[in-house]
Amino acid sequence: MKRKPKIYPASKARFHPTWAALKAAGLCISATWPWWDRNISASEPTNADWRQHSERCLKEAAQADILILYVEPGDRNFGSLLETGAALGANKTVYLVAPEPWPFLRNHPNVRQFPTLEAAVATITAASSL
Question: pLDDT tens, 34-60?
């Protein structure tokens, strides 16, 4: 059996329960941001908090095997696009689940597109069980 790939989820913070459920189900979620106290408590981060958080997130995104960029209609993405750039800059694979046209991502050789998060996760779990 292969080693489980390290997965970095890039999305809005409100999807924390989704990433927590996938981690509980056995996926190797390598990001710490879903459990960042500022995301959970909804307290306003200081500039120093943001600086530390952004540096940690970009490092974690670049160190993951696969980044899942998950976007729902109406989402405004900022940090997740930076994280995606860090992963692509490190020559990692990005699984894109998004309604946006984003041709600059969809046509990148390291980007795979999926219609749903479930389809992306199924591909990860099937590949890691070989």
Answer: 989 887 787 889 999 999 999 999 999
